[in-house]
Amino acid sequence: MSAVPTQLYDAHGRPLEYVRLAVTDRCNLRCFYCMPEEGIAYVPRQELLTYEEMERVVAVLAGLGVRKVRLTGGEPFVRRGLLPFIERLGQIPGIDDIGLTTNGVLTAPHVPTLARLGVRSVNLSLDTLDRSRFRRITRRDELPQVLDTLHALLAADMQVKINAVVMDGQNIEDLVPLAELTRDLPVNVRFIEEMPFNGGSHEATPATLPWNHRRIRQHLEDHFGPLLPLPAAPGATASEFRLAGHAGRVGIIAAYSRTFCGSCNRLRITAEGGVKTCLYDQGVLDVRALLRGGASDDDLRDALAAAFHTRAADGFEAEQRRPVHQLSFESMSTIGG
To answer: In which pathway is this protein known to take part (predicted)?
Structure first.
């Protein structure tokens, strides 16, 4: 067995501190930028990682320096047993920050339990405050339930980040109303460049994307005046700003332009156990095969360390490494965001 440092770094000097763990690929919405209207071919349940398998992987990753876990999907709350799983994750030595990304449809009744279990932050996917546009974008009429979740999270004094994908011709009129939420509410509203993850590739390049991070910022400044930059947290994907007189803040995530790769400190694990060291790679390790093939914790540790150490310098290199037959991108629901 090769020696592995307590804190793992990749070949570019970036630490591994954070894992995004998809607990399911299933979702109760059908956002058009994430999956087709008819849905996707879901992974058979027996091919999903069990909660016990996920706990084991997280424990090994904690030994490599991971301290933060964010649970994603699909929609995490469509999988039964989520709350007991969160409780067990919180008992893993070294894990001191558990977060959750949700669409908010099923979440509100569980907020008190989440707070009791020590979940610090919740990312709430919300692309519009207009009910008809919400129905068009998600193909479901669930906006009231999502807003109930928002208010429940704030009442529980939880850190809330609202994630809004900026889509040309779809929700541009919502950017200002969403940013207006920060005037009175202590929320972080983050605007995300649209990415090519919907079972096909975009014709736009980062340079020709209609609404890239620069245009998003200019649009907000045209309405609010200057966005005042805030210091970036280690590993942050968002450029964050405050608006004069606002209780909250706004952020812009250059997800397609990929301006934040130099400080990336994370990896992703899909619901079926695929490890992605970059959102744009094709998957670099199958931990399910290792787990079910009898691998020891040392075997897992060495495989995860090797995968992380050799990851691409940025999302562009990761995309270039994809085999030609895999240049169309999978549904975001299968990746975990």
So the answer is: Cofactor biosynthesis; molybdopterin biosynthesis
DSSP per-residue string spanning 193-238 = E--S-SSS--S--TTT-TT-HHHHHHHHHHHH---EE-PPPTT--E
* pLDDT classification of 199: cutoffs 50, 70, 90: very low
Residue 206: the pLDDT is 74
Both structure tokens of 285: 């390790």
101 is in an annotated binding site: yes
**Known binder of ligand: residue 128?**
no
CA distance 137 to 334: 19
Mean pLDDT of 319-330: 66
What confidence score (pLDDT) does residue 195 get?
83
Determine if residue 311 is labeled as part of a ligand binding site: no
Contact present, 298 and 3 (Cβ < 8 Å):
no
**Cβ neighbours, 10 Å, residue 320:** 11
Residue type, 55: E
Domains annotated on the chain, with CATH: 18-334 (3.20.20.70)
